[in-house]
Amino acid sequence: MSVLYIASLQRASGKSTFAAGVISRLQSDGIETDYFKPVDLAAEEMLAEGGNIDLRRLLSLNAQEMTPVVRVTTKGELVPRLSVADQRAKVQAIAEVLAKKGVAVVEGFSSDTQADGLLTDPEILELLDGKVVLILRYDMEEISGAMRAGEERFGERLIGVVINRVPEEEVAKVRSRLESEAGQGKRVLGVLPESSILLGISVRQLAAALGGQILTCVERGGEVVENIMIGAITQNKSVDYYRRKAAKAVVARWDRPDQMLGAVEAAATCLVVTGGQPPLEIIRIRANDAGIPIIQVDDDTKTTVEKVDSLLGIAPFTERRKLEEVRAIMAARVDFEELYKRLELKVAV
Questions:
Q1: 201-311: CATH homologous superfamily?
Q2: Is the pTM of this model over 0.90?
Q3: Range(s) for CATH 3.40.1390.20 in the chain?
Q4: How far is it, in rounded angstroms, from Cα 84 to Cα 312?
């Protein structure tokens, strides 16, 4: 068995995204694999009931196996409150199950996660006897230092680095710079471009995070929102205004049917109706006919927009459209042949 441990130095670096892409590739190459996330963060649970289980379903893995050892709340508390010894025992028991797989992909937690009495990344890694791929969120000025910090933290177990969320126009420059710096280019397994689809949030996740109710087209809850727009001030130019951005959620107060009709005509991904009141029936009919979900929320428009804006880029990886996107990106931008070699897998790539 090989254990691939996916680590990061900060949250929202793209560990789940990379894990999903790697598992999908392993499956397509006929390699038996499994996924384990030993620590879940409470902030992620706001967006989905157990992102770990949702990701396992998306990848056609048994949803009931490999549940997290502990969850960390936003206050830094462990749930359940297990001692370090008990955490070790649970990880060791899971390691015995993973030993029966060809490759186990384990999603670690960021090194900036704070919780008293929590096993560290290196401790879990040692128990699983894994090899590390470090995911770094793009910051040209910090990459070299972050790579050195990863080497110090994980030592010889670090087999590669992936730079994530790089603006497309910067990808070649990043790779060239790393290759010019002594030894660092050899560590890099991939430089992944930023993708609005991967940074987006599904309609279903958006409704859950806002405490809202989907009134129409519930079956389209998996559609991904990439942008947010506030209802246009004037009806005459609203359609042109909404068409400036793709895959958008349009936020409008419940008593502004003019704004909503413009959003429907411009094929918004969804409407978010604020103020705690449902829209007019004609809006529901038009949206339903156009296949556009309406989310009704209690908050005012300003608060709702701020919430949506804060959610873009951190939503759990649970939607099929995102899986298709990451498959395509990683097939072109990750050196799987080198990754398999470093994992000592004998597979024709």
A1: HprK N-terminal domain-like (3.40.1390.20)
A2: no
A3: 201-311
A4: 34
CATH topology of domain 2-198+316-342: Rossmann fold (3.40.50)
Counted residue by residue, the chain has a size of: 349
Helix-, strand-, coil-residue percentages of the chain, each rounded to 5: 45, 20, 35
Give pLDDT, residue 64. 60
Structure tokens at 68: 């997290």
Q: At what angle do helices 203-210 and 301-311 cross, to 10 degrees?
A: 130
Q: Is the CB of residue 69 less than 8 Å from the CB of residue 87?
A: yes
CA angle 152, 17, 215 (to 5 degrees): 140
Interhelix angle for 15-28 vs 51-58, to 10°?
30
DSSP state at residue 334: B
Instruction: Report d(CA 52, CA 72) in Å as an integer.
Output: 14
DSSP string, 164-187: EEE-GGGHHHHHHHHHHSTTHHHH
Residue range 153-184, pLDDT digits in tens = 999 999 999 999 999 999 998 988 887 775 66
User: Quick one: which H or E segment has residue 324?
Assistant: helix 320-333
Give me the residues paired with residue 8 across strands: 135
pLDDT band (50, 70, 90) for residue 47: very low
Q: How far apart are the first and last CA of the chain?
A: 19
**Residue 114 CB contacts under 8 Å (≥ 6 apart), including other chains:** 76
- Classify residue 181 as exposed, middle or buried by CB count within 10 Å of its CB (0-12, 13-18, 19+): exposed
CATH code 3.40.50.300 region(s) in the chain: 2-198+316-342
Asked if 245 contacts 267 with a C-beta cutoff of 8 angstroms, the reply is no
Alpha-helix runs per DSSP H in 266-300: 281-290
Give me the chain's average pLDDT, please. 88
CB 300 within 8 A of CB 274: yes
Strands 294-296 and 270-274: parallel
Q: How far is 312 from 327, CA to CA, in rounded Å? A: 21
Q: For residue 278, which amino acid is it?
A: P
